[in-house]
Amino acid sequence: MNGIGLAVSTVIFALRPHPETGRPVLSIPLVRRTRAPFEGLWCLPGGWVDPAESLATSAGRTLVETTGVRPSYLEQLYTFGAPDRSPGDRVVSVVYWALVRPDQIGERPPSSKGPAFDAENVAWFVADSLGSPRGSDGLHLAFDHDAVVAYALWRLRTKVEYSAIAQGFLGSTFTLSELRQVHEAVLDRELDPANFRRQVEGSGTIVATGEHVLGGRHRPPRLYRYDTSAPLVDNGPLGELTPGEMS
Amino acid sequence: MNGIGLAVSTVIFALRPHPETGRPVLSIPLVRRTRAPFEGLWCLPGGWVDPAESLATSAGRTLVETTGVRPSYLEQLYTFGAPDRSPGDRVVSVVYWALVRPDQIGERPPSSKGPAFDAENVAWFVADSLGSPRGSDGLHLAFDHDAVVAYALWRLRTKVEYSAIAQGFLGSTFTLSELRQVHEAVLDRELDPANFRRQVEGSGTIVATGEHVLGGRHRPPRLYRYDTSAPLVDNGPLGELTPGEMS
DNA sequence: GCAATAGTGTCTATCAGACATTATGTG
DNA sequence: CACATAATGTCTGATAGACACTATTGC
């Protein structure tokens, strides 16, 4: 007990159509602050930790309450605790990062149950337009959230190259083309379809379902699913946090 | 402000002679608890976060106070916050991991200044004898510190393979043989001297000083130092925490 | 057939690991 | 010289990237 406020925040990633090009682009929902400090500025969704709930549960709860999205993946990122990061009383924030599929984004507040979020003050931003260093051009967020977003972006991009994290953006089955497009959107560069196929097939993380997708004006691609016996990501002895463990 | 206690703990690594074989082995200092809960059990050094100090400063301060060592490297590991991880009031622990050189280990409490640590209740343990899963054989620590140690060990071993973290165990100059022995002790396996040399020379992280070590009954090895223009480790946008930044 | 994407094959540069060889100090 | 370790060289198998080629659908 030392009079330090403990909060959680979450950097949420989704692939959404770019407002101009329409191509899928890494996007982050932010919340506009409606009170001091930093009133009017955008910041990460979050809130206080309830003494009875775990940190991950707290992150999952607050992000649903404020943005209406239900993530398919949630992982702790880093704890930010500089004494001056928030005016007034000391606040330490345990920051998580999350992935959501398009179908997990509630564009409207859920009508029946749960607290409705304030849609007026929630908006999606292209990830690459955020996270620029203090003092530079571009949109700047409240608190130290510029640095937080930059770090989360780095972690996602690093991790997509060696883990099966991309499935957080995909449904239960998908084509190799869809999986590749996820990687391309995250890494923001094109990948060779042939080499990508070899790599991901050789990794053993995905399994062909035997089904194909018909209807395209071209050869029907195979459907794949992730091998559920393989871990989603390599987090060492900690393991990953799946939605089931979140609450 | 939510009535949650905020603490820091640190997993400290040093290379020390194995109590039986005498060969350098990864070792961790622990503190014996002198009060409930878990009185008599060993646990990680740590303490409460002072509202005025940063998390890293807090970690650095508490580990010096309790064990007398001054680390050459300190990095945040993970924040552990399960509601039931400590009996009584809720405690969330931000855990750091640290590296120390042999000369930074104060075997006796510093005589002149600072609080003397309780040498009776501090002891070094071979890292591989710790971190075993709950319920299995072996020494078990207070709180959730078994899992904490296991995770820290995983992180150190992962990181030594792609970063220049080994310098945390070495002085300002060293031979390739010494550097290799650090890697071998951390990874607990032998490395081919020739291939190790090529890899580390090719990485560009070390520079030959031009000097040699004489006196051995063999060809005198070159001395190297780390290239100070290269970063110690790749922590993304956060960068590393050097001792200078700790306080 | 043509367009479009799925899927396979092949070549090459690079790199890690195994291991042979040479170099240079001390006793 | 013998010995021990330093330092260099060479071979090989695995792999990533570039890119050519074949397969299969809809129109």
TrEMBL record, chains A, B:
Give the molecular function GO annotations: hydrolase activity
Coiled coil stretches, renumbered: none
Pfam families recorded: NUDIX, WHD_NrtR
Keyword check for Hydrolase, yes or no. yes
Q: Does the keyword Signal apply?
A: no
The source's superkingdom equals: Bacteria
Domain named Nudix hydrolase: residues: 5-157
Which SUPFAM superfamilies does the entry link to? Nudix (SSF55811), Winged helix' DNA-binding domain (SSF46785)
Arranged from A to Z, the UniProt key words for this protein are: Hydrolase
Q: Which InterPro entries match?
A: NUDIX_hydrolase-like_dom_sf, NUDIX_hydrolase_dom, WH-like_DNA-bd_sf, WH_DNA-bd_sf, WHD_NrtR
Name by which UniProt lists this protein:
NUDIX hydrolase
